[in-house]
Amino acid sequence: MITLHSFGPVFGVMDASPFVVKVDLFLRAAQLEYNVKVGAGYLKKSPKGKLPFIVDDGEKIGDSAFILEHLKSKYHIDLDSHLTEQERATSYLINKSIEENLYWCLVYSRWADDKTWPIAKEAFFAGVPFPVSAIVPSIIRKGVIKNLHGQGISRHSHDEVLQITDKSLSALSVLLGENSYFFGDKISTCDVSAYAILCQFYLVDYTSEFNALAQKYGNLKAYCERIQSEYYAS
Ligand SMILES: N[C@@H](CCC(=O)N[C@@H](CS)C(=O)NCC(=O)O)C(=O)O
Question: Which residue among 51, 107, 153, 199 has the greatest number of ligand 1 atoms within 8 angstroms of its CB, and so is best to mutate?
Fold first, then answer.
């Protein structure tokens, strides 16, 4: 049995971490049986100190990319069989762009933007008892802000981060076009990565400047809603 370790549902999506959602949607698209364990406490048990990780018949695998590689090879899953070699290469680079660039804009929007931080804080630390709740969120926030500085995104002005976000969303919107999925009418690994981040802009139950700017890309919103109703309708 496969067990996915996650932070847990928040903001109306399966997880606030796109990497967790990516693995979850992959498992659903691959029709593999699995269960989900929820809690930031699992970070301590994770082989790479981050979530997600899975335990598959006693084997622990960390990092969404390596998890997908493991699942593809062990269970002979190929969501990309309808892609050409060139499309597979494009898919890889779309995924990298999402995870190495747009992801950091998302993290900035929740942890560094003073307007959204109070909402994020309440959601991420719900259930944390007082007095821990009065101290721990700002300590963790400081750590995340340090990471954002190290990565470089928060060295840009707020407006520049909005511009970077817009550029990525605009490019994804053009690439998707009128398609149901990025590479035609069938889900592929690229969609698993794309949905995982896009749902964080289009399906969450809070508003921010970042989510607001995303609204102009109607095809991305419809795409998220389509995948949501296909894979997450209860
Ligand atoms: N490359 C990793 C990234 C995972 C990642 O960054 N997870 C974040 C949440 S989005 C995390 O666990 N952060 C907690 C920490 O760094 O302590 C993957 O693809 O799984």
Answer: 51
